[in-house]
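Lab notebook, bench 4. We co-purified these components, and the gel suggests they stay together. Before we commit to crystallization screens, I want a quick structural picture of the whole thing.
Request: model the full complex, all chains together.
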Amino acid sequence: MKFTISREKFLQPLQLVSGAIERRHTLPILSNILLKVKEGALWLTGTDLEVELISRIELESDFVEGEITVPAKKLFDICKGLSTDNDITFEVNGSKATIRSGRGRYTLSTLSANDYPNLEDWQGDVEFVISQSELKHLIDSTSFAMAQQDVRYYLNGMSLETEDNLIRTVATDGHRLALCNYDYTTSSLPARQVIIPRKGVLEISRLIENSDQTVMVKIGSNHISIKSADFVFTSKLVDGRFPDHRRVLPKETTKAVVADKAVVKDAFSRASILSNEKFRGVRLNISNGELKITANNPEQEEAEEIVDVDYQGDDLEIGFNVAYLIDVMNALDSDKVKFNLSDANASALIEDAQNSTALYVIMPMRL
Amino acid sequence: MSVSYSRKLIHIDMDCFYAAVEMRDNPALRDIPIAIGGSSDRRGVIATCNYPARAFGVRSAMATAHALRLCPDLTLVKGRMDVYKEVSDQIREIFSRYTPIIEPLSWDEAFLDVTSCPLFGGSATLIAQDIRRVIEAETGLTASAGVAPIKFVAKVASDENKPNGICVVAPDDVDKFVAELPLKKIPGVGKVTLEKLHTLGLFTCADIREFPFARLHKTLGKFGALLWNRCHGIDDRSLQVERQRKSVGVERTLSEDIYSRDEVVEVIDYLLPKLVARIANAHADKRIKSQGIKLKFNDFQQTTIEHTRSEFHAGYFNDLLSEILLRRKERGIRLVGLHVGLKDETDIEQLTLPLDGA
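Here is the predicted assembly.
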């Protein structure tokens, strides 16, 4: 097996695929990357048994077909450090792989490609094509609310739902929930709901770009894959039942406060500096035309911010984890934000004041 | 080397605390050598002794048997810890009138950070003098104070003019004060360290300043670095404020027992502005979680009523009063107290989404 490639063409796919590979693994071959030359292209594969990423690079100059695995991190570090002036030649001789570039020569150990684990064959029952930017929006609008190492394992991921002309993502860690709806007009989709594990979600977000280029999403009973011109990403699904968001969305709220998003976001960020480091609580005091944000910490330091808002109604004092508020402000890409509230113990529904494709529910904090 | 200081710290140290309490409560002990501690036949140790005893060389932490050899007439007093604790609480309450930032070191000793105290035009010296005055007026005991911009200097200073004295080390004087300091006065320098330092020809902080840091570090390790800093007037430790206050209160013991509601209302009206001021001083207005009244009757029975309230409301004491007066039953009232309970971290609660249905 042999191929020659420019450093530029090789490096970025190599980095992407290496991202799916764990550095230290009990199974040595899982620290390796699979390189395969076949039909005029180089295929790079990385996996951690939960996710798999395959990237394809067209080869131009002479090559010899074959496949092998080498330590991923070492290969990437070497290629990253090589000069941009020379092409890289990769060649397998016996049990070693040699990398040549200019006057440099590196010999890496190999493990047989036959031993490299690949996700078993699976069938997709839902398929749709979506632009990378739309998919990215669906993911980035909600993924921050995913739980992390929660015993309720089904919360350590994101729910992806299809039904007719709707694609919906939902994530929740039990204190807050994020939901994003996308109106899919291309075709009518079957009703499915799956949970993509946290790592898979973060990998997909890393792989896709804010572009009009499309990807094909394929959902099977245990797997999901995202396929573009350059890569195929596959993730196992979390086997579990995701909570029903309809139970969590407040049905009726009594107070609607509309504010300039950038202004409140900055005010939250400043006030957070003097919130209790452990609990991150801030107090919101809502009165006619005004939102007051206050924070204090055990050192008796205090922050107070007053923001003009659109609101007429009864006064309300309610506490929140300021990090949750800031996350939502960051996820919204609107100018105006609307807080729908009821009382100090009831959840708040936060949304773009003009467009409610993304909905955020945050439970208050008793301060 | 110049160091700039931004804080005003006071170290308050009660004079011969346990012994002073005993002398206060039993004037017969006032002029004779006394010590509080365990008896010699039970291998006891001296906790505190008064100045007449110190004249004989008796010191705290000394074995009682040894103390008795030095001073055979020493009167040994068994400690009354509950009384000392009560006085200690009293003193701590006095501190809290000046600043919420208090680091108690023991029952009779504390650091106070008065940097943001608005009293006496912000003069730490005048604040320290007032604290000493109030302690003496309210407990009959004397305290010594050290005023300085850094902790260890404040602590050393409080010892300087003991008993019943004050020593102020202004920021500009720290350098000179530290330079002249014998090394044995620096907290942490014990017998063994002192011997090592003396062997190296080091006796004062000024000597350390002339001494190569690396060698000091090699000889004493981490403590060498710390000592080097101290000798250069560097001590950026802030006060370790214990836990947050759980309540703020005021009370008044009446000169004569009272029986009618109107009389109690009068006392409450007298106490209210003091409570409000105390709440403001402790920056507690945003942490109110309850409001309560305490009464002590002339049979010395005491009762407290407390209701959950998210904010302080003076008028609510009327409701509380109606309820608590039902417990009076013919008895006279000798003490009235008002207080608010404060939330602390354990009261913070993040509510959860009804994911599983409810």
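Chain B has a mean pLDDT of 89. Worth comparing against the SEC data before the next meeting. The domain at 247-348 of chain B is CATH 3.30.1490.100 (Dna Ligase; domain 1).
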